[in-house]
## 1
Amino acid sequence: MEFLNKNILIISTEAWGNNHITKHHYAKELAKLGNQVYFLNPASQKFKVANVLDNLTVIDYKPKFRGLNRMPSLLRNTLNKIELKSIYKLAGITKLDLVWSFDPFRFQNLKLFKAQKAIYYPADVHQIALEPQTADTADVVVSITPSILDRLAVNTPKKLIHHALGSSFAAATELFPLQEKQNKPIQCGYVGNLNSKYLDTAAMQQIIADNPAVEFHIMGPYKANDNNLGKGASNAELITFLEQQKHVKLYGSVAPTDLAKLIHQFDMFLLCYNADKFRQEVSNSHKFMEYLSTGKVTVANHMIAFESYQELLEMTDTQAELPYRFKSTLKELSKHNSLSLQQKRRTFSLSNTYTNQVKKIETFLA
C-alpha cells in the first residue's frame, strides 16, 4: 500500500499536545504526504474534533461503555462497533484505508475498523493480556526493538524499524554544519519528561552534583499542566533539586521546531533511564535519534537496540557506571566529538527519518 491520498486513523496512547513522540510524528508525516489523518486521543470526558494541521484531525471522545477489556470477546466486539460508529460520525469518517494502532488497551480487534490494511506498532512495552489480539488482527507488526517483537507470539509478519528523526530535526542539520568547537563552560543537553517513571533520578542528581562546571540544559515537561504524555511518576524531589542548581536551566516543554534548532548549541547529551530496573522498557529512545542528528556524543544508560552500534554513543552496562562514564567522556570530549564520529552519528540519524521509515513500512505492508 502506498501512503498517498488515503484515509488513515491513528490510535494513540498519548494525547495530542505540545510534546511530540513517535505517534505524533508519524501522524504529521502521513498528513504531509497528502493523506487525511485522524488522530484518536485516549478516552476522555470530551467529545469533539479539531483540525490541528493541514490534513490532520484530532478526535476526542467520551466512551459509551466501561470495563470492555473484562468482557468476553464477542460482547466486547459488539460494543466496540457501537463505539466506533459514534466516533466515525463525529469525525465525518465514511471509510478508512488504513488503521494504525499504537494502543493495545482499546479496540484490540483491528478488523472491526474494516480498513484495507491494519498496522500494530508497539513503541513501548505494554502489560495487557489482550495485546496479542491487536497484533494478530493486524497485517503487520512494527516495533523499535527485537525484544518487543519477540514478546508477541503471533503469526503476523513483524518488522524491526528504528525510531525515526522528525522533519524539523532533519531540516536543522542543513543549518548547523558539524564543527569541533566547544562551549566554555561545556553545555550538556537533556530532553525528556522529568516525571517519567523510568528515569534514574538518583543517577541524574549525582551527575549534575558531581559536575558543577558543566551547564545542564534540560528540556521537557515537569509541571502537571505542561504534559500531554501521561501522568507517569511524580519525581518532585528531582525537580526541586534541579530548580535549586545554579548550573541547571529548566526549559519546560519546547515545541519540536524550536527544539530542533536549540539542541545544536550543546556539546554533549545525557540519557538517564534506569536500565537495571526497566531494561526492556528503555531498550530504545526516541530522543536519542534527535541527539544523534547534532553529531555530538551522548552518555547513555544501556539500550538493547544499540548494542550493535556502540561507536555512536558512550553506553554503560549498568546504572552504577553512568556517573563515571559521564566524567570520563567529559575529560576526552574532543576525542568523542571528532568530526569523523560526528559524521557517523548524523549519517545514522538521517538514514532513519520519518520519511524513510514510512517508505520502509509501505514496502513491508505491500
## 2
Amino acid sequence: MKISVLGAGAWGTALASRLAANPDLRVVLWGRNATAMDAILAARVSTHYLPGIRLADELQVTANLSEAVSGAQLLIIGTPVAATEPLLASLPRSSARAVLSLSKGFIAHGEGTQLLPDVLDKFGAAHSMPTGLLSGPSFASEAARGLPLALVCALKDGALATELAHALRDPAMRVYASEDVIGVSLCGAVKNIFAIAAGVSDGLQLGANARAALVTRGLAELRRLVEACGGRGDTVSGLAGVGDVLLTTTGDASRNRQVGLQLAAGKPLPEILTSLGHVAEGVYAAQLAHSLAQSKGIDMPITRAVAALLSGEITPQRAIEALMTRKPRSEF
C-alpha cells in the first residue's frame, strides 16, 4: 500500500518514518519547503523537528505534491489544523481510498467554531472519499525512535477503520478502530487546553493533588461537550481522551504544557510562542472551545478559565482561584 503523509512537521515526519519501516507499506512524506525536504533527503534527519533521530531509509521525501499523491491508497494529513482546509483544496485528483487527519484542534468559522470533521466531510463528499482521524497519545520523538504507542483510527465506516488499523500497525504500535469521528476529534482538540491548565498548576507548584483534580474534572467537561456534539461519551475513556489527556498534562515534551508552565512563570504569551518554535494548538483552541461550549449550553469552567488567561483577562493565580472558589455541586 502506498501512503502519502502530507505535512513534514514533527508528528507527520515521525509517523511517516515509522510507517516506512513496515515492508508492506510504501510511504512518501511531502512538505511544501523544498529546501527543507532536500535536507531531510540528504541527511535522513529532520533537524528542526526531530534532531538527532535518523529517519527510515525506506522513507521517500518530496516537495512535489502531485508526485506525493499519485497512486496513493491512503492520504494522511499532517499539517496544523488551520492549514487543513487550504491543503485539501490544493490536492490534485486522487484515487485514494481514504483521508486521515493527524490534526488536533478547532477551526474558526465566522463568529463560531467549526469542527475538523466538518471540513474533512466536505472534502470527502466532493471526492467520494471517506475521511477520518488518526489520533491518540503520541509524542513525535518517541514514535520516531520506534518506542511503543497506541493510536485510534476513526472513520464512520467501521469496516474500513478496522482494515486501516490493521494495515498501519507494527510490532510496537497498536492501532484501534473507532466509528466516533466527532468524539475523537473533540478529545484531540480539548486535551491541549487541559495541558495548558496543568502546566499553570504545576508551574505555580500547587502539587500532584491539584493536577489530578484538574485532569479529572477536565475529563468530565470534555465528556459533556462530546455528548452535546453527537459523539460517544465512552470515547473520552479511550486513547483519544484519557490517553492523550494524561500524556499532554504530565509529559514535559508537551508543547501546550510548556505554555502553561511558562505563563505561570510570568512570561508573556507572544514570547512563549516564539520560543517554542512549534504550534501549540491549545492556545488557538481555548477560545473556540469556549465559544462552542456556550453555543451548546455546556459548562466548561477549566476551558473558560484557560481562554480568559490566554486573552489576558486574568492572571494564572486568578484562573486557579476562580476554579477553586466555584459553588459546590454533585460530582456527577
## 3
Amino acid sequence: MAQQQDALLATTLDVIGEVYEAAANGTWSRFLNAMADATDSEGTVLWLHDAFDTSARFQDSESSFLCNVRMEKGFLKSYAEHYTHTNVLLQQIDAVPEGSVLVSSSMLSDREFHKTEYYNDWLRPQGIGYCLGGPVLKRTSVVSMFSMQRLVSRGPFRDRDLQLLSAVMPHLRRACLLHKRLGQLRAQQSGVLATLELLPNAVWLFDANGRLLLANGAGRELNARRDGLWLDGNGRPVAADPGEHLRLRRSIDGAIAAGQSSVDYFEGSLGISRNSSPVPLQVTVYPLRNEALADGAAAAIFITDTTRTALPESEVPRLIYGLTRTEARLATHLARGDTLEDYCVANDVTANTARTHLKRVFEKTGTRRQAQLVSLLSRSPAMWHASPNLQH
C-alpha cells in the first residue's frame, strides 16, 4: 500500500512539473500525454465549452493552451458541429466550481448514460465508455474544460486516477492563467520592439553584464558609422573620447544596478563628441526594471542626433516605463512645466482622474514626487526637441 502511494506521489509530481513546463514553453501536448499515460486514457483534451449556447471550441487565439492528444480530428469536428449540444454530462456545468473533478459514472448511471445520443453516436463508435475531467477556468459563460476518455475495454477510472487529477487540477488552473499572462506579455513586448525598430533614435538594450542584447535599425546604423560612439566585439559601448567613454560605462553600470534595486531614480545623461559634427550625440541611459522591454534587458540607452532625428514627444517615456498613452501624455505635460490643473483643462479630465493617472506614473517610473518625475523625464531625448530649456 505504501509503495502504491509512493508511486502515485511520484507520478503526481512528474505531471505537475509537466503542467508548469507547458505554461512556460507551450508544451501542452507533453502534459496531456503524461496524463493519458498515467490514467490509461485513450485521449486527453483542453477545450472551451460555452454554457450559454453549448458550443465548443478546440482552438482559440486568446487561449493558446487549448490542445488535444490521441483524438481523431473527424470526431472532434463532429463534436463541435453537433454532439456538444447533446453532451448530457455538461448540462449543469455552469453551476460547477472551478477545479472540480467529475467522473461520468458519478454524474449519471451507466444505464441512463448508455441510452443517450451522446454516448451511442459519439462515444461508443470510438470505443469510449468512461469520461473524467472538470472545469479549469470559468469566464462568464465560457468554461475551459479538461477531460480524459477511457476505452470500455480498460474499465472505469480508478480511485488513483481521481486522486491524481484532484491533485493536478489546482496547478492546471494556475498554469493556464500563467500561460495566458505570459502570452499577453510576449505580445506586448513584440509590439514594443516593433515600435523601437521604427524610431528615428538609436536604441541599444544591454543585459545585466553590460553587453548588447538588441539594437534597433537606427542603432545598427549608428554602430556601423563608428562616429564617436560604437560597440566593440563584445557588444560593449565605446566612446572615442576617453573621458566620455568612462562616464558612459559608469552610467550603464549604474543603470543596471539601479534596475536591480529600489533606487528611486537614476541620473544618466551625457553628450558624446563625434567627428562629423560639432553637435554632440545626446545619450540617455535608463535602468530597466522587470525586463521591461525584452527578456534579459537590464538597461537601455537612447542616442539622439539632434541634427538628424526628432522623436514623438511622449514616445520614449511611454516605451521605457510601460506607460499608457494617457499616462505618457500626463507625464509629458508635467515635464514641460504644466501644472496638474493645466493638464486637466487641456485634456478635459477631472482632478481625481488625473491624480489616479499620476499615481500610476509614479509607480511605473519608480518616483515618489512630481519634482522627481520631472527631473527624470527632462533627461529624455523627446524633451530635448520639445523644450530646450529642460536640457541639462
## 4
Amino acid sequence: MIRRSSQWKPLAIAAAGVAVAIALAGCAGGSSTTSGSSDKITSKSMTFVTDQGGPAGAKYRQLIKEFEKANPGYKVNMEILPGDSTYNSVLTSRMSSGKSPDLFEIINGPQSAKPFTNAHLLTDLGDQAWVKNLTPVVADAAKTYSGHTYGFITQIDASGFFYNKDLFAKYNVKVPTNWSELQAAIATFQTAGVIPIGMGGKDGWPVNQLAYSMAAQQSDFAPGNSTGPALVAGTKKFSAVTGWKKTLDSFSDLVKDKAFDPNASGITWPASATDFDKGNVAMFYQGDFAIPAIRDGKPSFDVGMFPLPYNSSAGVTVSYGSELAIPAKAPNAGLAKKFLTFLAEKKNYQNYLTSAAAFSSMKNVSGKLDPALAEVAPAVAKKSVEALSWSGLSTATSAALQAGAVAILAGNGTTDAALSGLDSAQATN
C-alpha cells in the first residue's frame, strides 16, 4: 500500500492518528479487541470507507455493483476520504463518537492496522470461513494483535519499474537487471531529453515507496535480522544503520543524476501517471495498483514492468495491499461480514483481482493479469521481499522518512538531515 492517495497507501499515516488511537485504547477497557461482532444484519444498507477514488477505486465499485445485483435490496455506500495524514485520525474519531462506518480500508495493510487493534477498535474476524483460504504468508501477516485476524488482506502488491517499451526500443535501452544498468539507462534518456523516471513527489508517498523498496533489498533488513526490530524498539538509531544510510545516499545519487523531472517534488501522483502514459517519461516506479491509472488514459499503451534492480539477488519488492476491516462498533457488522464473504467467493475474487490488477492473497485463485504484470509475475513467484516488515519503520518514522526523502528530491535535503529526522521521530514510537 499504495497505498496511495487515492491509491497506495502511504505508511506515513500521521502520528496524530496514532495518538488518537492510543488515547482511545484507554476507553476500550484494556481487554482484547471485540471478538465475534454480531452476524445479525440490522439494515439493508452499509457504509464502506476507503481512500481509493478514481481509477484505483474501480475494483470496489465493480465489487459493490456485483454484490448489489446478487443481493437485491441491499446497498453499499462507498465513501472516499483523503488518503493523507488525516485518514486514521478521522476514522478513529468517528469510531469513538458513535458514527463508525460498517467497513473500512486500512491503508498500507497490517503495519497500519496496529493503532486500531491496539486501541481495541476492530472486530475479530478469525472465525470467518475465508480466513482458512488465505495463503500462509498473508494469514500470518493478518494476525496483527495477539494472534487474531482483524482484516481481510485482499491482495499482494508487487512494486517495480513500469517502462515505456517504445522509448526503450527507440533509444536502444535494454531492461536493467542491476543498479549499474539502471544508471546507464537513466543517463541515456537524460541525454536524449526524456525524463528517465516519473515521480509524484508532491504527494510524498511515491517517494517513500521507492525509498523503502530500496531499503527492503538491503542485507540489514533481511527477514529474521534483528536490525529492524531494534529500530522499532529504539535500541538502535537510524543514523547508525548502514542499510538506511546507503539507501538514502543512493536516492540522493538518483536526484543528482537528474533521474527525475526537475519539478518532481511539485508533481502529484495522478499527474505523474498521466505524464508516463503520454510518453513523456521512460520509467515509472510504482506498485501494480498503478495499472488502472495508467490504462485509464491509454488502454493500449505498450508498457512493461521489471523489478527494482537495486540488489538483483533480493527479489521483487512486495507489500500487502488493501486490507478491509470491520469496526468493533460497526452499526451493521452483519452486512459487512456478508460483503466480505461475497468478495471471498472464487468468481467474485477473481473479478476483483483482475480489476485491481493485483496478485492473489488467497490459495489457488488468481485474476487475469495485465500484460505488464504478467511480465514480472515469474520473478514475483520466484522470490519476493516484503517491503515493510523488517525495515524498522513505524508510522512516525515513516512520516519522517517521507519528509527527508521529499526534501532530497526537492534539492534542499541531505542524507544526514533525513537520518537525523528519523532519529528524532523514533522517540515518538
